[in-house]
Amino acid sequence: MVCLGNICRSPLAEGVMQHLAKENNLNWQVDSAGTGDWHVGQGPDRRSTNTARKHGIDISGQVCRLFRISDFDVFDVIFVMDRNNLSDILAMARHEADTGKVKLLLGDKIVPDPYFDDAQFEPVFKMIEEGCREIIKSLI
Ligand code: 4NP
Q1: Which of 26, 35, 131, 132 could bond 21 through an S-S bridge, CB–CB 3.0 to 4.6 Å?
Q2: Cβ–ligand 1 contact at 40 (below 6 Å)
Q3: Distance CA 53, CA 80 (A)
Q4: Active-site residue 82, yes or no?
Q5: How far is ligand 1, taken at its centre, from the CA of residue 60, in Å?
Q6: Which residue, among 64, 53, 57, has the nearest Cα to 7 in the 3D structure?
Q7: Confidence of residue 139 (pLDDT cuts 50, 70, 90)
Q8: What is the value of pTM for the model shown?
Q9: Does residue 140 surpass a pLDDT of 90?
Q10: Mean per-residue pLDDT for 113-134?
Q11: Taking residues 48-62, what's their average pLDDT?
Q12: Is residue 66 over pLDDT 80?
C-alpha cells in the first residue's frame, strides 16, 4: 500500500487489508510505504490512528518508511492511492514485470489526500475499506 507520506492513507490501507485478510483466513503479507521521506521513522498520523481505532483496527505500531525498489520483488501487487503515487512508483519500475504490479487501490478512482482536511479521514477510511473488500472478493 503506497501513498505520499505513509502516515495517513497507506497506513489505513495496510491496517484494513491486514484485518480483512485475517478475517478471510488469508495468509497475506501486507505492508505500506511512502514516496516522500518527510515522516520516515514516525508512526501514523494521529487522525488515521484514531479513525482506524473507531473501526476496531490498531495501526499505532506501524512505522513510516520509503518505498524501495526491492518491494517490487517482495510483493505481488503494489496498490497506490492516487495518480501522483502511480507515476512516482511507475518511474521506479525496472521492467514490465514491475510495472504490471502497480495498481490504483480503487481501480479507476483515487483515494484523496486527507492531510489538510480532518473531515476527510472518515470518508477516506470508508473508501479504503470498500476498495480492500473488492480486492479480496476479486482475488479469492
Ligand atoms: P498521506 O498524506 O500521503 O496519505 O500519508 C500525507 C502526509 C504527509 C504529507 C503529505 C501527504 N506531507 O506533505 O508531509
Answers
A1: 26
A2: no
A3: 23
A4: no
A5: 17
A6: 64
A7: confident
A8: 0.98
A9: no
A10: 98
A11: 98
A12: yes
CA distance 14 to 12: 5
38 lines ligand 1 (CB under 6 A): yes
Atom nearest to 4 CA in ligand 1: 3
* Domains identified in the chain, total number: 1
Q: CATH number, domain at 95?
A: 3.40.50.2300
Q: Residue 117 sits in which domain range?
A: 2-139
User: Is 113 in contact with 123 (CB distance < 8 Å)?
Assistant: no
List the alpha helices (DSSP H) in the chain: 9-23, 46-54, 71-74, 83-90, 96-99, 121-139
Q: Which residue has a Cα nearest atom 8 of ligand 1? A: 5
Q: Tell the burial category of 137 from Cβ atoms under 10 Å away from its Cβ (0-12, 13-18, 19+).
A: exposed
Instruction: Please tell me the distance between residue 140's alpha carbon and the centre of ligand 1 in angstroms.
Output: 32
How far is the first Cα of the chain from the last one, in angstroms, to the nearest whole number? 19
Give 72-81 pLDDT, tens digit per residue: 999 999 999 9
Among residues 45, 89, 41, 40, which one has the least CA distance to residue 68? 89
